[in-house]
Design brief:
By secondary structure, the chain is α+β, with helices and mostly antiparallel strands. The protein folds into 2 domains: 5-141, Sandwich (Jelly Rolls), CATH 2.60.120.10; 184-424, 4-Layer Sandwich (Phosphatase 2c, domain 1), CATH 3.60.40. The chain has 11 helices and 18 strands. The chain has helices at residues 5-15, 24-33, 89-92, 115-124, 127-192, 241-261, 265-279, 356-359, 370-379, 386-401, 420-424; strands at 35-39, 44-46, 54-60, 63-67, 75-80, 85-86, 101-104, 108-114, 203-210, 218-226, 229-237, 286-294, 299-305, 311-313, 319-321, 339-344, 350-354, 410-417. β4 (63-67) and β5 (75-80) form a beta hairpin. The chain is rod-shaped.
Length: 432
């Protein structure tokens, strides 16, 4: 047998803890007098700080008790369901203000009891005040426990944040110290390279070196041997960063000594390789080109240990690759195969020595700059001064790379043999 709505509401009211001890006549009186409120989903019943003159009993649905609704710090304090009451503190507080906001989660159905009805009910049924006090006490205890848990959680969060802040500060300090040390290392490494290039009758020299990082493994040098010759070195150590830079400094120093001890570039490279194996220098190795330029004949006799072959630019813009065999790097084998060649720089011609960071440079699509593009660019710089040749090649590479990061260290050394008419005019000397 289906009950009528009035009887169902009466039974529901009798089952609620707050009204369970009331006599049937009182329950019937409440069912007759209380107004039913229907709330759609996500409806705010009242807000924190508003003045309240009634409280509510949940018949159906759920209500959320919240602070700071809609704000960044909004917080759900509790959820009240069927048989629970809400909004009673505004009736008990002297100022009558709501201490929190309330909204429906889904559809909700409530009984509304006005302040006058509440006061009359308490006068008729004083025991109801004890039941309400018991519920409020339990809620306060739960709220206090929740607040303590929240404070403990926030304290743990603060501790973690403090530790993370200390770690971040330590990382910043370490980073700043590392940057200072890398800058010092960069300055030391750059001081190993020529600060100025020779100013020799009949020749122009140009050079550029651009490490991929603060320090790198590339190097070059131009060394006066006597009034009739200069030695030219270009090298590229495998690897990157500080280990490569340290090995680069070691190879560079050994090459300086080898050039002084040996009469031929091949002998100098062989001697350096022997020293590397004798001291067990490193697991790294290096490609090197070592050559001697005869200032009277413009002959450049060189030996290569796995390094990129030189390119020769004729006065008309034709570009020739001087050598083809690669040879083998220093520090890898005890008796490496070396490529030995001689090339004469014609009047008005340019000899370019470079590291593979130039040809291996990549654009955002992953395409290499490549030797063919290098030779085309170099041909267009045929009539430029030696330093401008190096600058122009670097500009072409950076334009090609676009937003892509630099792939490797880049080193460029150019030697121009000036034509007789240029020499008579006393053409300018170029140095880094």
């Amino acid at each position: 047998m289906q009950l009528d709505p009035w009887t169902m509401d009466l039974r529901l009211l009798a089952e609620m803890p707050l009204f369970r001890e009331l006599p049937p006549s009182e329950l019937e009186h409440l069912v007759t007098r209380l107004r039913v409120v229907e709330l759609p989903p996500e409806t705010v019943l009242f807000r924190e700080g508003e003045r309240g003159d009634c409280f509510y009993v949940v018949l159906e649905g759920e209500l959320e008790v919240f602070h700071a609704v809609g704000a960044e710090g909004e917080r759900i304090l509790a959820v009240r369901g069927r048989g629970e009451f809400i909004g009673e503190l505004s009736l008990l507080n002297p100022d009558g203000l709501r201490t929190a906001g309330v909204r429906s989660r889904g559809p909700a159905r409530l009984w509304e009891m006005e302040r006058v009805q509440f006061d009359e009910l308490i006068q008729r049924q004083p025991s109801l005040a004890y039941e309400m006090t018991r519920v409020l006490s339990a809620r306060m205890t739960a709220a206090q426990s929740g607040t303590i848990r929240d404070l403990e959680d926030k304290n743990l969060q603060l501790i973690r944040a403090y530790e993370e802040l200390k770690a971040a500060q330590a990382q910043i300090i370490d980073k700043e110290r590392l940057e200072r040390e890398l800058q010092v290392a960069h300055d030391i490494q750059m001081s190993l390279l020529p600060q100025t290039l020779p100013r020799l009758p009949g020749y122009e020299f140009g050079a550029r070196i651009i490490p991929e990082r603060a320090v790198g493994g590339d190097f070059y040098d131009v060394i006066d041997l006597d009034s009739d010759a200069v030695a030219i070195l270009v090298g590229d150590v495998t690897g990157k960063g500080v280990p490569a830079a340290i090995f680069m400094a070691q190879i560079h120093a050994l090459l300086h000594a080898g050039i002084g001890l040996c009469s031929q570039p091949r002998e100098a490279l062989q001697w350096v390789n022997q020293q590397l194996f004798a001291i067990g220098a490193s697991s790294l190795f290096a490609t090197v080109l070592c050559g001697i330029l005869d200032l009277k004949t413009a002959e450049f006799a060189f030996a290569r240990a796995g390094h990129e072959p030189p390119l020769l630019v004729l006065a008309g813009g034709e570009v020739c690759q001087v050598a083809w065999d690669l040879g083998q790097p220093l520090g890898l084998l005890e008796d490496p195969v070396l490529d030995e060649q001689t090339v004469t720089i014609p009047p008005g011609g340019v000899l370019l020595l470079y590291s593979d960071g130039l040809t291996d440079g990549r654009n955002p699509q992953g395409e290499d700059f490549g030797r063919e593009r290098l030779m085309d660019t170099l041909g267009g710089l045929a009539d430029h001064p030696a330093q401008d040749v190096c600058n122009g090649l670097w500009q072409a590479l950076t334009a090609f790379q676009g937003d892509a990061p630099q792939f490797d260290d880049v080193t460029l050394v150019a030697v121009r043999a000036r034509a007789e008419e240029q020499e008579r005019k006393g053409g300018a000397h170029y140095a880094t």
